[in-house]
Amino acid sequence: MKNSFNTRQLTILGLLTGILLLMAYTPLGYLNIGPLAISFNVIPVALAAVTLGPAGGAAAGAVFGLTSFLQCIGVGGLSAMGAILFDINPVLAFIQRFVPRVLDGFLLGYIFRFVQKTKGARLGCFVTGFFSAFLNTLFFMTALIALYGNTDYVQGLIGGRNILLFVCSFVGINAVCEMVASTILTGAVGYALYRSRLFASQK
């Protein structure tokens, strides 16, 4: 039973990773608007977190983070901001693109567990979908300010504004679209998977 359970987990992770890669390397995953992009790749990460827990979420987040970093050098499309950050410091660019996505997926697993235990799996899926996009934006922008805040590029983007005001105006509609899409799709698909008894926590 244990081997079968592990195989099921790996199969689910493999399928979600495949979907994530498909989205990352086709127009399905990103909608580019200016220097930022509306990313729908947070949805497979959220689904991995609700079905497989923190470890599964972190694994999917790592795939997302790696594809995001590769866009800094034009693999699977070019990120305008990523290319500039890579030219400034490629190591920091990797940290800024990779670590927030791993942390996002990891924490989502615990968020789902908490909401599922207190309010039920259905609400847990929707809440996890929301936080997938919210935390992705929060961690991404925090890493940007922390690692590149003193560079001429980021200082030019800030333009002397308050940091909080800059972040809100910079992500704007992008973050809202991500949160709405991730909440609805993760909630609907996640709960369907739960009803099909495909969650790692289900016997």
Number of helices: 7
Radius of gyration: 17 Å
Q: Tell me about the biggest sheet?
A: 2 strands, antiparallel
Strand order of the largest sheet: 1-2
Number of strand elements = 2
Q: Which class of secondary structure composition applies to the elements?
A: mainly alpha
Q: Can you tell me the residue ranges where pLDDT is under 50 for at least 5 consecutive residues?
A: none
Mean pLDDT: 88
Which range does the strand content fall in? under 5%
Helical amount among residues, as a percent range? over 70%
Name the helix and strand elements from N-terminus to C-terminus, one letter apiece.
HEEHHHHHH
Distance between the termini: 10 Å
Inertia-based shape: globular
Gist?
It is built from seven helices and two strands.
Task: Explain this structure.
- It is a single chain.
- This protein is mainly alpha-helical.
- The protein is built from 7 helices and 2 strands.
- Strands 1-2 form a two-stranded antiparallel sheet.
- β1 (30-33) and β2 form a beta hairpin.
- The chain is globular and about 50 Å long.
